[in-house]
Every structure is written in C-alpha cells, then in structure tokens.
Design brief:
Elements: H1 11-68, H2 70-81
Helix pairs in contact: 1-2
Length: 95
C-alpha cells in the first residue's frame, strides 16, 4: 500500500509568495501610473488643440458674418478689385 505524503507548508513559503505578490502588484501599479501620465499628457494636448480650434471657429464665424454685412461687402470689393471711394487718396507704387 502506498503511503500518503504529507506536505508541510512552511511560513517561509507563505512569506515568499506574499513578497512575490507584492512585487507583482507594485509592478502593475507603477505601470498603470506611467500609462495614466501618458494619457493625461495626450488629454492636455487635445484640450489645448480644441481650445485653439474653437477660437479659430469663432473668428471665422465673425468674419463670415462681417462679410455678409454691407460694410464687409464694400471692404471685400475694395480689397479684391481695387475700387476706391471718391474722397480716397490713391498712391500708385508701381512707378
């Protein structure tokens, strides 16, 4: 008849397992902290880009509204085609 072996687990084994688990958890924690820093940096960059694009959108909306107004149309025609008013002084820089 085969004898059953009794395995006695010592406190050293439990301590070793506990230390290995603690090291593994510490590694996971540090890895997650690094990933969190990377994500935060990306988020900050994207928020800054969003702010820039929002201000550019507001500027363009203002320009569109201005161009629709009579003053904007007059300014566009004067800039694009060189029209002048009767009381304007014209400087010819081509000579």
């Amino acid at each position: 008849m085969a004898q059953k072996r009794k395995y006695k687990i010592s406190y050293r084994f439990f301590a070793l397992v506990a230390v290995l688990c603690a090291v593994a958890l510490l590694g996971v924690y540090l890895s997650q902290q690094q990933k969190l820093k990377e994500i935060t940096a990306i988020q900050d960059k994207l928020v800054s880009e969003l702010d820039d694009l929002t201000s550019e959108e507001k500027r363009l909306e203002f320009m569109i509204e201005y161009r629709k107004s009579p003053e904007g149309k007059i300014q566009y025609v004067r800039e694009k085609f060189g029209f002048v008013k009767e009381d304007d002084i014209v400087f010819d820089l081509n000579n």
